[in-house]
Amino acid sequence: MLKTESKNAKKPYDMAYNGHTSTLKVLLEQDDQLYKRPDENDRLLLHWAALRSHEDIVAHLISLSSPIDHEDDMKFTPLILAATSGRDKIVKILLNEGANVEARNFGSHSALQYAASKNWKAVLVLLLAKGADVNVANKRGATPLHRAASEGNAEICCCSRRTK
């Protein structure tokens, strides 16, 4: 049996975040419910692996049927987290597995809004190809185009206009 630190309940989530694939797989074999057990922020292992772009862990968790659109305590899904970090390979995997392209977090921000504001062109193109709404507005009424323009991301502004 794998020895784990009982005082550190975050260990599996840290493993997902830091890309410790083989050790995490052992834990997942020992506990067949671990992949769907949230941490204190209501994040799953999938959230942490997506945030840091660990494709192998994301693929493995999806193969175990990890809930792909699970929202954390701030309503961030794995897709939104991947988009905020510019993780285009993870965004592509999640979208191909049916992640909700229109999911929104606590501020009503979508993955597309984050991609536009942070100048993640590859992520923006993937989201638009899956039908993300370019006119989606957050709680303040800002659309992805507003977010891109406010950050000076002219190329993103042009990209979102061309792909409509």
TrEMBL record:
Pfam families cross-referenced by the UniProt entry: Ank_2, Ank_4
Keywords: ANK repeat, Repeat
Signal sequence range: none
ANK repeat ranges per the UniProt record: 74-106, 107-139
Domain of life (superkingdom): Eukaryota
The keyword Hydrolase is annotated on this UniProt entry: no
SMART domains: ANK
Protein name: 26S proteasome non-ATPase regulatory subunit 10
